[in-house]
Amino acid sequence: MKNFNGKLALITGGSSGIGLSLACELFSEGMSVAILARGQQRLEEAVGLIEKSRVHQAQKIAAVAADVANAAEIQQVLADLKESFGLPDLLINCAGVVKPGYAELLPLEDFRWMMDIDYHGTVNVVQTLLPDFIARGSGHIVNISSLAGVIGMFGYTAYSGAKFAVKGYSDALRSEMKPRGITVTSIYPPDTDTPQFAWESQYKPFETALIAGSDKPLPVKEVAKAIVQGIKKDKNTIVPGFEAKVLFFLATHLGGAVYPVMDMLVRDAKKKKAALESDKTGRHGS
């Protein structure tokens, strides 16, 4: 994948956030792109933004309205896509949702919702195209996990569970596909400045917001550029951002030693929460 010109990328979750930014980046390098998401209006708006990055007239843009969690629907729309545009050279699974909250307060429906879209949505798309990639003997599959997919983050039990699942699936798939000429890449982005990040902030527990508050979310274009550069180098693991790389290293090399660090951060956050609540109680009492 060192040369994108004239090739086709399929990007799920391509109507906003990291997916849209990736579509613009790849289109600016001469690729044709197909973006897949649920909302038709947002898809149409995204097509207009992607078009601004056009470099030659032969490039194509396709907008596919579908729900990645619906396996039957995915199979149908991807069959139509292959017939109209051909088999993608690059598949990037960006579709994802996240809703933080205290574990005991998160309803089971939220756990299922995140698993259905973040994990099963990834699997549905990959498994639909995988036989064609194998028959062709080539292809590059990119699955978006998260730093929360390697470190269990306070307030993210449902999301971490789904993103750990994406990591496990991608690791095993990489092992199977490498001898067949297919590259599998896992992405572990930190907090990124996207509409999804802004939406989830309203649900963050106090401790979660405090622990993450010292780190500004990375600009979405910076994350997209890091992913594109990693794809060019056929990297199996891409971690955008210096601080994220440090956290990823600690999580993957320290083993259980990372737990005391996380526990310390949580203890400090709970102390500040208690102090804040005490201060409020004192003011109200006076």
**Mean pLDDT level:** 93
CATH class identity of the largest domain: Alpha Beta
Query: What characterizes the major β-sheet?
Result: 7 strands, parallel
The rough form would be described as: globular
Portion of residues in helices? 40-55%
Going by CATH, the homologous superfamily of the largest domain would be: NAD(P)-binding Rossmann-like Domain
Q: Structural class, please?
A: alpha/beta
Low-pLDDT segments: none
* CATH architecture verdict of the largest domain: 3-Layer(aba) Sandwich
Q: Could you characterize the architecture of this molecule?
A:
With 286 residues, this protein is of the alpha/beta class. The termini are far apart. The mean pLDDT is 93. It contains ten helices and nine strands. The protein has a seven-stranded parallel β-sheet, with helices on both faces. The protein has a two-stranded parallel ribbon with strand order 7-8.
Label this structure with key terms.
single chain; 286 residues; alpha/beta; Rossmann fold; seven-stranded parallel β-sheet; 9 strands
